[in-house]
Amino acid sequence: MLVLVINSGSSSLKYQLRDVDADEVLVEGIVERIGFPAEDGEIEIPDHEAALDVVDAALQDALGGRQIDAVGHRVVHGGERFSQPVLINNEITRAIERLNPLAPLHNPANVVGIRAIEEKWPGMRQVAVFDTAYHRTIPERAWRYAVPDWLYTRHGIRRYGFHGTSHEYVARRAAALLELPLEAFNAVVLHLGNGASATAVQGGRSVDTSMGFTPLEGLVMGTRSGDLDPSILVYLGRQGMSPDEIDDLLNRESGLKGLGGSNDMRTLVGAVERGEAKAQRALDVAAYRLAKYIGAYHVAVGGAQAIVFTAGIGENSTVFRSLVADRLGALGVAVDPDANALRSPDPRVISTEGSAIAVLVVPTDEERAIAEATAAVVRTSAVR
Ligand code: ADP
Fold first, then answer.
1. Closest Cα to atom 13, ligand 1: which residue?
2. Whole-model pTM?
């Protein structure tokens, strides 16, 4: 089965064509600057349909006359309705659109991508895979904010969680690596990329996660602040900052960038090696915050069997992993420095034999997870 995985942003379209049965990537790429005027030598791409023409041309060689069987979309917000990937029809597209206010940057772009495919390849089977879906098993005590009920009933203000496709995929692979049945697997999964979140996994399901109403809550991220006292926003508003300015400040100018001057972990580690205090401070704040979440989630899951690192920083940064692990002594966690320093594309254990909780590095692969989910939905809906 050939699945085209689409991650449609407002001005970009990422794609990957996969042969699901052979577990192979046939071709991948990104079309950028959609809706922007062309610069020297560039072709202008006025909209997502034009972007799909570019994608289509790029696919032809890899397809070699074969047909795409289905398209899988990464959809950011599935609200309270979607707890599973679904086959898309008009009603589903409208339901995703109704969630636009909850994810104003992402869901509209996802819908544009879905409609562009329908225009270009009418009748193509399309599946939506939601970033929030895995977190639909989080109990109310964990998803409620302690605010009056009307904020939830009228505005949908609650914790939703994100990065679900990655957390689910990584939890499954981690359980397999440790040869534990997923239904009995308790873990803390740490997705540390530009965006970062931790998930408490109990019996293979998400029972808590660090991102909330939006992806701003929780850990210190590349350019996002994560947790802070909400009164800071009120204070800044009273100082004359507009909602858009505050949004920009906390989403794009904060986190590692705000503290350390860069959102790139490699740059920060280099700066620490040159003795730059600001970079050291950024890593200390991020590692400390993360270690606190791990302690909290160890409690939330009733004792974790594993702590699992994934995504850009989690998979690659020996330095950051050891900064975090060094703070987990109270949990009896011990990381083996040699295993931690090893570079490998494979899932692996980096803790010592004696560590009370196994520490793992498990590479994530959201495209693969989306392609597999898409194939599964298409196969079951074909049987009906
Ligand atoms: P995104 O959320 O955009 O998908 P990624 O998962 O690619 O982000 O993670 C980006 C982060 O991973 C950046 O902070 C980057 O510095 C870090 N990173 C990538 N490769 C390495 C590496 N070899 N060593 C340390 N950090 C790395």
1. 264
2. 0.96
